[in-house]
Amino acid sequence: MSAQAYEDKGQKIAASLLLESRMPAAGTETTLAIRMSPQAGWHGYWLNPGDAGFPLQLQWHLPEGVTVGELQYPAPEQLLASDLMNYIYHGDYALLAPLVIADDIAAGTPITLAVDIRYLVCSPKLCVPEQQRLQTRFKVGEKGAPKKYLETFNTWRQLIPRPAAASADFTIHKDQFVLSLPLPESITLAEEPHFYPEVNGVLSNTASQSFVRKGDRLFMQTVATEGNVSDFYGVLSLNETLAIRIKAVRQPEGDLVFPTQVSLPPEQPGNLLATSLIAVLGAVLGGFLLNMMPCVFPILSLKVLSLANLSDERVARTGAVAYTLGAVLACLLLGAFILMLREFGHQVGWAFQLQRPEIIVALILLMMAIGLNLAGLFELGTLSSGSRLQHKPGAVGDFWTGVLAAFVATPCTGPFMATALGAALVLPTSIGLMVFAGLGVGMALPFLLVGFIPALRQRMPRPGAWMVTAKRFFAVPMFLTALGLVWVLMQQSDSQYVFTALLLVLLLSLGLWLTGLFQQAGRQKP
Question: How does pLDDT run across 22-41, given as a tens digit for each residue?
Answer without folding.
Answer: 888 888 889 999 999 999 99
